[in-house]
Structure formats: C-alpha cells, structure tokens
C-alpha cells in the first residue's frame, strides 16, 4: 500500500537565474512565484484534496484496527448475512437489505480498499496536473527523477524501525492472534529478520518482489502500484500529452493497462481528471447546479459500495470498480462546496500533512503497543472495554508517531529534490540550493497519503 495529503495554497518555488545562465533556467520558469486559489479546480493545488487524502489514510487505520484486528471474530460483518440469501426468497433479500443498512456506515468507514484507490487516483492527478497546465516536458523529467527516492526514503526509515522492533522482541502480533480471534494479525513476522534482508526489502523487494508474508510493513503492497503507476503517468504524458488527439492515445493506454494490471487504472483516472479539468467546456458542465445536486447522491451510492462489492462483484474486477468509485469520490469533492469546506478544515489539513507517515507507522503501533496492550489487559477488562480502550490508545499513539515520523518524510522530500536538481543541473537546467529547500515539503511527487498537493 503506497505511500504517502493537503493544505492552504502556497507559493510555488522561485525559478532562479545566474547572470550567465539565463537561458538555462528557461526549463524551470514554471516555478515562478504565484498564488493559486485553493478552491479553483484549474489550479495545480487544491487544499481540500489534501484533506481528502488525510481522511483516507485515517480510514485505512480504522480498517486495520477494527475489522482486521479488534473485531475480527466478534464485530459486525456484512458477510455474516450471506446466509439470508441462500434460500433466494423475496423475504431473504428484504431482510438482508434491512440488516445491511445497519452495516453500511461501519463497512464504509472501515473499508481499506476504497481509500487506497483514492490515494492512487489523487497520485495520478497530482503527478499529471502540473504538466497538463503547462505542457512542459521538464516537469515530467523532474518528477520522474524524484519519484523513487521520494517513496523509498520514508519506507526505508519505517522498515528500519520495524527491523529494530523485531530484534528487540517488541512485536506481539503473533501472541495476540489467538486472544483477539484475528488470524490476520498473526500472519506477520513469522520469520527471522536480518539486516541485509531488511535493506534488500526496503530498496528493491518492496517494489519488484513483494511478499506479504515476509514484509516489514503489511501496508507496503501499495508501493509497487505507486511506483509503476507513477511511471505509467510519466510515460503516458511524455508520449501522448503533447498530441492534439491525445484522448485516443490515452484510450489505447487505458485498454492495455486493463489487461496488464487493473490496479494501475486508478492512476489513469487521475490523469483523465487532470486533463478534463483543463477543458473549459468540462468546467462549465460541472458547474451546473444539477451536477452539484448529483454529487451528494453519487456519494450516497459510494457509501454502500463496500457491501455491494463484497457480495455481488467478482473479485477479479474489484480494482477496476474501486478505481471508478474512487474517481467518483474525488470528482464529487471537487464540485461540491460543502465537502470542499469540510476537507479544508484544520483537522483535515493536519491529517493531510501526516497521512503518508500515518500510513507507514500505524502497522508498527498495532503490532507492537496495540498487541501488547490487548495481551496485558485481556484477563482484567471486559471485552467491550478492552476493545474500546485499545482502539483509542492505538489511534492516539498512531497519530503522535505519524507526527514525529514527518521528520523522515520531509527529509525524503528534500533528498529527492536535491537528486533531481543535481541531475538536471548537469543536464543543463539549473536550480539553486535555496530554491530546492525553500519550496514546500509536500509537492507533486506525493504518493500514498503524502502531504501537500502542489
């Protein structure tokens, strides 16, 4: 699972010129200081999308905490009602529908798949929108040079923490599995960690040879999608972004991607949203009052999507359906003012800033402190009180750890920019150290839960 969320509009980093190299800075004129309205769909930075990313990361935490861990065997689960359909009677369907309503909110706010695909759609949008607005190829080069380092630096740090915890015996997930009734949490860390194994995993295996049974963080299955999806965007824009009839080319890429890896479709959906929002006719169409009324209706449909997907949609097309659902969420937020206001609030902004860190660190909290707490108080607290107290403490500690981990996340951003600046300087484009370090930490190479759409 990239990965890596958003805030008020900020100034883009200043392009810099030296007296003898004015011609060399032409490629980065796009960095001229300018204010972008936070709510303008045509701007490359939308504050509320950062907030959406932040809440998506929080829902992933709830997913792993409740249906996968604390309520794995005892909590509400829509699959428990499938027996009502076995008789295929009208009464069975009605009873199923009524009982499912009680589960809709629980399943939606603890469903980990939809928010992950929201991350993917947002990543596709963010990686595309700068180029789509300017059609300057150096933007693609700049982001492509940053991408691996941007993702890998915080992943490496988080995996190192997991490695240390394993060596010190701080991971209690296997011991808590039987007590909690969660076979899921007991499936991790059944192997002996080694330093070189950790290094190989963090630098290579996480992208190219991921095995969830030997992963240092169980959420990192998304990082392969993040890396491959990012370069799918870069290649698509490089090959087709400058064409007058690029939509036909995009369609061919979409069909090919469908057959190769449906997970990557979400990135293309983000690209399509970025391209569409640059069309004046599309913006006028989406500004119609009727469309703004349809947005909340569409979101209500999205609300029941986890239950519908689980029971009625074949698993082999889940990625494609989730990509469409995530795109509906993103577009609905972009055209529905009340949602924009909600996702622009301070709390949403805070979650946006820590979202990638939260995504990477919450598995550590669940498998260490959360599991230890459950074991320590299992005999002394009633089950409801134990679950409630464990949930509160894990959520609070996860947020605090994510806030602290932002140091490593921001460091990764800076190192990625320095690498890009070094390569581009040697290639004829020039940016000073001040321009690199002075630009906001969150930017267009953001990924799973990463803060700051620019």
Automatic annotation (TrEMBL):
Residue ranges of the region described as Disordered: 1-26
The keyword Transmembrane helix is annotated on this UniProt entry: yes
Keyword RNA-binding: no
Gene Ontology molecular function, alphabetical: acyltransferase activity, transferring groups other than amino-acyl groups
Transmembrane segments: 52-70, 90-109, 115-132, 153-173, 217-239, 251-273, 293-312, 324-344, 356-375, 387-408
Keywords, alphabetical: Membrane, Transmembrane, Transmembrane helix
Signal sequence, start to end: none
InterPro entries, sorted: Acyl_transf_3_dom, Acyltransferase_3
Segments of skewed composition (Polar residues): 9-22
Pfam families reported in the protein's UniProt record: Acyl_transf_3
Domain named Acyltransferase: residues: 47-402
PANTHER family named in the record: ACETYLTRANSFERASE (PTHR23028), PUTATIVE (AFU_ORTHOLOGUE AFUA_4G08520)-RELATED (PTHR23028:SF134)
Official protein name in the record: Acyltransferase 3 domain-containing protein
Native source organism of the sequence: Paraburkholderia lacunae
């Amino acid at each position: 699972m990239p990965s890596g969320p958003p805030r008020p509009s900020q100034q883009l980093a200043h392009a810099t010129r030296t007296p003898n190299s004015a011609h060399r800075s032409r490629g980065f004129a796009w960095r001229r200081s300018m204010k972008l309205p936070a709510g303008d769909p045509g701007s490359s930075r939308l504050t509320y999308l950062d907030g959406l990313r932040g809440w998506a990361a929080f829902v992933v935490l709830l997913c792993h905490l409740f249906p996968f861990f604390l309520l794995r065997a005892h909590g509400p689960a829509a699959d428990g009602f499938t027996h009502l359909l076995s008789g295929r009677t009208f009464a069975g369907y009605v009873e199923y529908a009524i009982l499912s309503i009680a589960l809709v909110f629980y399943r939606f706010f603890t469903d980990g798949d939809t928010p992950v695909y929201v991350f993917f759609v947002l990543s596709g949008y963010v990686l595309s929108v700068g180029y789509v607005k300017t059609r300057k190829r150096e933007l693609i080069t700049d982001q492509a040079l940053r991408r691996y380092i941007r993702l890998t630096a915080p992943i490496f740090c988080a995996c190192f923490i997991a490695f240390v915890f394993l060596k010190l015996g701080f991971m209690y997930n296997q011991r808590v599995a039987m007590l909690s009734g969660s076979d899921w949490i007991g499936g991790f860390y059944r192997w002996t960690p080694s330093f070189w194994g950790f290094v190989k995993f963090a630098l290579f295996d996480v992208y190219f040879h991921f095995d969830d049974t030997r992963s240092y963080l169980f959420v990192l299955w998304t990082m392969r999608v993040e890396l491959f999806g990012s370069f799918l965007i870069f290649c698509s824009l490089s090959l087709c972004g400058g064409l007058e009839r690029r939509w036909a080319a995009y369609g061919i890429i979409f069909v090919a991607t469908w057959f190769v890896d449906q997970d990557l479709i979400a990135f293309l959906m983000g690209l399509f949203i970025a391209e569409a929002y640059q069309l004046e006719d599309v913006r006028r169409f989406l500004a119609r009052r009727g469309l703004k009324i349809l947005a909340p209706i569409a979101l209500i449909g999205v609300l029941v999507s986890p239950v519908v997907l689980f029971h009625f949609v074949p698993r082999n097309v889940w990625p494609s359906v989730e990509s469409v659902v995530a795109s509906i969420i993103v577009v609905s937020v972009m055209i529905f003012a009340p949602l924009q206001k909600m996702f622009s609030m301070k709390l949403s902004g805070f979650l946006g800033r820590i979202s990638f860190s939260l995504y990477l660190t919450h598995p550590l909290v669940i498998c260490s402190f959360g599991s230890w707490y459950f074991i320590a108080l299992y005999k002394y607290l009633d089950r409801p009180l134990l679950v409630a107290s464990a949930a509160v403490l894990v959520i609070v500690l996860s947020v605090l750890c994510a806030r602290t981990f932002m140091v490593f996340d921001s460091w990764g951003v800076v190192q990625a920019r320095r690498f890009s600046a070094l390569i581009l300087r040697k290639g004829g484009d020039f940016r000073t150290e001040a321009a690199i370090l002075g630009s906001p930490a969150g930017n267009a190479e953001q990924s799973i839960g990463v803060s700051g759409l620019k």
